[in-house]
């Protein structure tokens, strides 16, 4: 919601100024033209995190198909890009050979790409085209594990993640320690310090929380809400969610044969079945109270994990009497729905702002790496855009509202958050109305909100920080009224 300065126009103009400045530098001009092209491309979202944090499983759960990971030599060192395409296709990129098409092997629930013949460390990137709605607006990037962070949290993989991606879904097992230091180390530039706008932190593998109890998922979500109130965590991300990628993916690809096997297990009482679910070896190898082939048990274990099998059989006993009902309940309990809503609200809905942010970061890095006559003026222009663009002011206000440091009461803070796009950037979402509300109603609510928040912005009894926050809300309301006057909804 731009008022006054148009962020997209300002960034476009800055890139062309930089192109003129570096016109005699082919490497720099190629980099800047790449940034211009990125403004027109889908949003790039990297899925990052430490070893065994469940990145590929979460990526599959988001897409709803088993596409990642890519099998091959040293697969952990490859950046794999998943983008929409008319048909399944995979292309390998290395530093020493031309791009090469790879063989795609389709399966009932997705695909597999084998990298036979490639040597360890030879591949840099694999671009996978896959026809799915989940990739219409975003390109997902499966990144190598974050390893080797120094005492300051610097990790080489994150440097490339931040260059190539517009937003980051960062997976962590506990949301503490090294993971927070890695994220803190990324905020060492003007753009990085502007606001924590491009990171969602995700507590992963939460099906393993709570000692294996089936209510562990609820415990994990409560932990996520509590941790997000921590000022250190809140300063690094726009949201913190808990999600079991394993259960979310199981819900999305659950087959009728999977359900039939689970229903067969659910015929056994919990007291009789639970001893067989104490370990994977016992579940697969021991003699069960019902006839279920070893291969079927192993497939269930691979699909759901021990805790998932325990949860799924309980759900079948308590009313999930069809594959569709069980799949929906597994998805709901996994936290995948909340994760996808967060990605849509904080990333996809703000894709233009995030792409502009990436371009600003790229220009800033180039100006600092290759200084010369005129670079100081362009660095000042970067600062002016960051300070003046209303989109960034909204995001900074959202960050302040989440920490409660402005001092607004809960009701006012919630209203301000909604009006500046914290609950969705569409007009109806900002105004708290149904999506099909008539234009007259939208206008009335926006005008009333503008009047009320202007009074707060001019109230001498409020603290300066509160009045400035209210001014941002007023500008957002003005933008909504201007959009309505131009025929928008």
From TrEMBL:
Q: Name one Pfam family in it.
A: Dynamin_N
Query: Gene3D superfamilies attached here?
Result: P-loop containing nucleotide triphosphate hydrolases (3.40.50.300)
Q: Where are the transmembrane segments?
A: none
* Taxonomic superkingdom: Bacteria
Q: Where's the Dynamin N-terminal domain?
A: 45-172
| The protein's name | Dynamin N-terminal domain-containing protein
């Amino acid at each position: 919601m731009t008022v006054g300065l148009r962020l997209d126009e300002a960034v476009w103009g800055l890139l062309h100024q930089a192109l003129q400045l570096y016109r005699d530098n082919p490497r720099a001009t190629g980099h800047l033209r790449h940034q211009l092209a990125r403004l027109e491309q889908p949003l790039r979202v990297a899925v990052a995190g430490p070893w065994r944090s469940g990145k590929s499983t979460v990526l599959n759960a988001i897409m709803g198909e088993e596409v990642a990971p890519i099998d091959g030599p040293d697969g952990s060192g490859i950046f794999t890009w998943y983008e929409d395409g008319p048909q399944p296709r995979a292309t390998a990129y290395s530093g020493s050979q031309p791009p090469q098409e790879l063989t795609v092997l389709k399966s009932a629930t997705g695909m597999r790409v084998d990298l036979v013949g490639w040597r360890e460390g030879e591949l840099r990137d694999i671009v996978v085209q896959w026809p799915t709605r989940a990739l219409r607006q975003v390109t997902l990037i499966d990144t190598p594990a974050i390893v080797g962070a120094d005492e300051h949290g610097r990790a080489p993989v994150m440097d490339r993640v931040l260059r190539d991606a517009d937003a980051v879904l960062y997976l962590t097992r506990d949301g503490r320690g090294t993971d927070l230091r890695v994220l803190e180390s990324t905020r060492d530039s003007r753009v990085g310090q502007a606001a924590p706008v491009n990171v969602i932190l995700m507590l992963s593998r939460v099906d393993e929380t709570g000692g294996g109890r089936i209510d562990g998922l609820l415990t994990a979500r409560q932990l996520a809400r509590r941790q997000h109130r921590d000022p250190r965590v809140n300063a690094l991300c726009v949201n913190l969610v808990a999600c079991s990628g394993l259960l979310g993916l199981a819900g999305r690809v659950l087959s009728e044969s999977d359900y039939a096997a689970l229903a067969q297990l659910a015929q056994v009482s919990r007291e009789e079945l639970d001893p067989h679910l104490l370990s994977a070896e016992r579940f697969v190898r021991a003699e069960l109270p019902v006839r279920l082939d070893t291969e079927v048990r192993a497939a269930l274990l691979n699909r759901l994990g021990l805790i998932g099998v325990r949860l799924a059989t309980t759900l079948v006993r308590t009313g999930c009497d069809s594959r569709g009902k069980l799949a929906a309940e597994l998805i709901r309990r996994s936290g995948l729905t909340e994760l996808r809503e967060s990605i849509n609200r904080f990333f996809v809905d703000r894709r233009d702002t995030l792409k502009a942010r990436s371009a600003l970061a790229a220009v800033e890095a180039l100006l600092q790496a290759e200084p010369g006559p005129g670079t100081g003026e362009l660095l000042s222009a970067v600062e002016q855009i960051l300070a003046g663009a209303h989109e960034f002011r909204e995001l900074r206000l959202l960050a302040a509202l989440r920490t409660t440091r402005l001092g607004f009461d809960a009701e006012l803070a919630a209203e301000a958050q909604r009006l500046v796009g914290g609950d969705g950037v569409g007009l109806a979402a900002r105004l708290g109305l149904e999506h099909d509300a008539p234009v007259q109603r939208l206008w009335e609510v926006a005008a009333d909100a503008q009047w009320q928040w202007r009074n707060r912005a001019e109230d001498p009894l409020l603290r300066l920080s509160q009045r400035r926050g209210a001014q941002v809300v007023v500008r957002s309301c003005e933008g909504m009224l201007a959009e309505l006057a131009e025929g928008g909804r």
